Amino acid sequence: MCMKRILLFFGGCSTEYGVSLQSVHAVLTHLDRSRFEPLLVGITQSGGWLYYTGAPGAIPADRWQGPDCVPCTLALSRGVSRLILLDGSGTQLPFDAAFPVLHGKNGEDGTLQGLLELAGVPVIGCGALSSALCMDKDRAHKLAALAGVRVPRSAVFRRGAGIGEIQAAADGLGYPLFVKPVRAGSSFGITRVTAPEGLAGAAAAAFANDREILLEEAIPGFEVGCAVLGTDELTVGAVDEIELSQGFFDFEEKYTLKTSAIHCPARIPPEQAAEIQAAAKAVYRALDCKDFARVDLFLTPAGEIVFNEVNTIPGFTAHSRYPNMMKAAGLDFTTLITRIIETEVGA
To answer: At what angle do helices 333-345 and 17-30 cross, to 10 degrees?
Structure first.
C-alpha cells in the first residue's frame, strides 16, 4: 500500500480559529498513520502560514506557535503539489492532497479551495464553487429550492439599506424571525427577533459580519441534520435531532451544549428519517458538494422538511455532529477519516 502524504490546514484568520484547533487535533488523533502521513500548516489569526512539526497535543490549547515553526507557502505551478519552506533552505515538501480543517471565512468559503485548485492540488472536501455557494445562505437556498426542497421565506439587504425598508420586509415575514449575515459560519451575527423594537440592533449585528444580511422566517419545529459522505455514490449517516430548551442553536450552544441536547439517531419514525436523508442528498448534489458535508434542515410539526444550511467542513470536536452521525451509521472515526480522504485520493 502506498503511503499518502496529506497536507492538513488548521487555525485560520476567522472567528472560528479555536474550533479549527479542536477539529484538527481530533483528525490527527484518529488518522490511520499506516496509510497517511500528515504535513501540518497552521494559519495564524493574522493570516501567516507556518509549517508545524511539534506535538499534536499543543494545538487545541493554542500553544502550537513557537520558534520551531517555519514560514511556508504553496508552490503555485501545476504539476507536483509542493509546500515550500521559507527559511532559506530551499526545502520543498511534496504531498498528495490538501485537507483544509478550517471553519468560517477564509477557510470554508472557497478562498483557500480556489488557491489549491489554481495550483492543481487535489482538495479533500468541497471545491471552491461549492464552498462559496454553501457559505452564501441566500444563494444556497435558491439552489435548494430549484432542487425541490422547501426553504424559508426570506429577504436580502445590502449594507446601506434603510431601516424602513428592512422593517417593511420584516412585517411581511412576520415575527419571530431571524436576522443573519448572508455569509458567516457557526451562527455568528445571528439574532432571533421577536418584535420590531429588536430589528435595528439585529441588523447592525448582522452587518458587522457581512455586507449583506438575510431576514428569514422562523420555522416551527426542530432542527435535524444529515451527514453525507462521497461524491458519485453517497453514504448518509443517521439523522440527528437538536433539542433546545430555549433560544436557538447559536455558536455557544454548538460547542458547549449548555441548554440543549443532541439526539442521534433522531427521535422520529424511520420513514421520516429516510425522507430527510433524501432531501439532504438532493441539496448536497444541487450545491455540487463532494467528499463530505453536513446538511442541516428543519422538521416542522406538520412533518415538512425545510432546508437550513450546509456545513462544508463540519466540526470534528468532542461535541461534533458529523462524526457522531456517521458512528451511528456504523463508521468509526478512523474509518470515517480514511473514507473521506480516499474519496479524493483513492485507496
So the answer is: 100
- CA–CA separation, 89 vs 82, rounded Å? 15
Q: DSSP for 9-63, please give it.
A: EEE-SSTTHHHHHHHHHHHHHH--TTTEEEEEEEEPTTS-EEEE-S-GGGTTTT-
Helices (H), the chain: 17-30, 111-118, 128-135, 137-146, 163-173, 199-207, 251-256, 270-286, 321-328, 333-345
pTM of the model: 0.93
The class (CATH top level) of 154-217 is alpha beta
User: What is the C-alpha end-to-end distance of the chain, expressed in Å?
Assistant: 8
Q: Which three cell numbers stand for residue 169?
A: 420586509
Catalytic residue among 210, 240, 284, 294: 294
**Region 134-150+219-345: CATH code:** 3.30.470.20
In the sheet that 212-217 helps form, which strands lie side by side, from edge to edge? 154-158, 212-217, 177-181, 191-193
Q: Specify whether 16 is catalytic.
A: yes
What Å distances lie between residue 263 and 241, 244, 249, 330, CA to CA? Answer: 5, 11, 14, 16
Catalytic residue check, 186: yes
The cell for 283 is: 441539496
Active site includes 284?
Answer: no
Residue of 81, 308, 311, 324 marked catalytic: 311
Distance, C-alpha 107 to centroid of its chain: 9
Q: What's domain 4-124's architecture?
A: 3-Layer(aba) Sandwich (3.40)
Crossing angle of helices 270-286/137-146, nearest 10°? 110
Residues of the chain with pLDDT under 50: 249, 253, 255
In angstroms, rounded to a whole number, what is the distance separating the alpha carbons of residues 153 and 216? 6
Whole-number Å distance between alpha carbons of 339 and 312: 16
Known catalytic membership, residue 255: yes
Please give the backbone phi and psi of residue 332, each rounded to the nearest 5 degrees, phi first: -70, 170
Q: Are 93 and 70 in contact (CB under 8 A)?
A: no
The answer to whether residues 125 and 290 touch, using CB atoms and an 8 Å cutoff, is yes
